[in-house]
Amino acid sequence: MFKKIFFIVAVAIASVNAKAQTADEVYNSYLDFNLARLEGRTGEALELGEQIMPNVAKLTDKARTSYYYSMGNLYENDKQSVKALPLYEKVVAAEPNYYVGQRALAYMYGKKVEELSKKLNASEGAEYKRLYDLYVAQVKKTLPHLEKAQACDPSPETLALIKSFYKFMKDEQSLKTLNARMAVMSKNCIDLLSDK
């Protein structure tokens, strides 16, 4: 009995030690992940990225933010939006001026807006009111990210979408101040993440 318990404890310790990586080992894995991603080896990049995830805290703050964006992008392109969304949220929280992350997050939130819009158009009565409130809340969640992306990388389509949301909500004040807000936001734009 004692040998059996000793064996189980030894195996458990060995498996924990096997998974625990030093900061240098995690960073080397991160470099391998980036190389696979840049060379278009998507499946391998996803696998390497998922191996990094349990030890991601050992990366520097900037490398971690870059990793989160890259993994989010890989997940999104692999039709795993549920996994991509929280990673994009971490990117925007860490680097709010990174407009590429803002646009990615706006796109993810926009999917929910589109979903709610279809349900809203097919509803009536109390259900319409409930869905309308959900729709407006989701639009309000999406707009700041769209505005930052538009401020840093203007697009007629994005601007039209922003304006249509404000018009739908009958928010004339936000429409009037849109250009001034975006002018301020445009002064602090980051288009590339550095991991150094």
From TrEMBL:
It comes from the Bacteria. Residues 1-20 form the signal peptide. This is Tetratricopeptide repeat protein. TPR repeats lie at residues 65-98. Keywords: Signal, TPR repeat.
